[in-house]
Design goal:
Oligomer: single chain
Number of helices: 10
Radius of gyration: 20 Å
CATH topology of one domain: Tetracycline Repressor, domain 2
CATH superfamily of one domain: Tetracycline Repressor, domain 2
Order of helices and strands: HHHHHHHHHH
Strand content: under 5%
Shape: elongated
CATH class of one domain: Mainly Alpha
Number of strands: 0
CATH architecture of one domain: Orthogonal Bundle
Distance between the termini: 51 Å
Largest sheet: none
Helix content: 55-70%
Length: 212
């Protein structure tokens, strides 16, 4: 697709302009992160006038918040997909493997889709009172809920005690998010791939041992 400010807008043929603008914003975020999610750019990508976007988004942050939610949903879906791949029959080992799988999925998403990852955690907030219903794609559990369910499963199968479970999502999420940030934008950015895998394995192992 040709990109540039001098491109003529395309005729709008979509049935849902709001979703078309979010879709455009998601693609902008994928390559440029949250700073690329601009109302004017999304309008151009959707093939509509800049003013048309304001019928659905109050301002720039309103659009970014919707795009961030979509990116967060993408992260959740990958976590769920990786977790559902675990088919170990032993209930305890399965629950433990499912927790590890969502941790790896989180790190995989950050490294494979850095623009989406940065956008998902951009802290943008939607404009209050927009009255817009959420898209079906965005109605998936958020990563916190996915993690919480995996930890609850560990309790249900007797892998950890309720006392160990209490507040564990904060430590687990902090561990994988911190490593994701260090690998993406921090001093571990240029770490050789074998060391990246070692770092991932170590962090996940420490989380697992801390719960035991």
């Amino acid at each position: 697709m040709v990109r540039g400010d001098d491109r003529e807008p395309r005729a709008y043929h979509h049935g849902n302009l709001r979703q078309a603008l979010i879709d455009a914003g998601v693609e902008l975020a994928r390559t440029g992160g949250p700073n690329a999610v601009l109302l004017r750019a999304a309008s151009r990508e959707a093939g509509v006038s800049h003013n048309a976007a304001y019928r659905h988004f109050a301002n720039q942050e309103d659009l970014l918040a919707a795009v961030a939610q979509r990116c967060m949903s993408r992260l959740s879906l990958l976590m769920i997909e990786r977790m559902d791949r675990i088919t170990t029959r032993d209930r305890v080992r399965r629950a433990q493997a499912r927790l590890g799988a969502i941790g790896r999925a989180y790190l995989e998403f950050a490294r494979a889709e850095p623009g989406w990852f940065r956008t998902a955690f951009s802290s943008a907030r939607p404009h209050q009172g927009s009255g817009e219903a959420p898209a079906a794609d965005d109605a998936v559990p958020n990563p916190y809920d996915v993690l919480s369910a995996a930890l609850d499963e560990l309790v249900a199968v007797g892998a950890i005690t309720p006392e160990r479970r209490d507040g564990a999502e904060y430590a687990a999420w902090s561990g994988v998010h911190g490593l994701s940030s260090l690998l993406l934008d921090g001093p571990l950015h240029d770490l050789p791939e074998p060391e990246v895998e070692r770092a991932i394995g170590t962090v996940l192992a420490v989380i697992s041992r801390g719960l035991s």
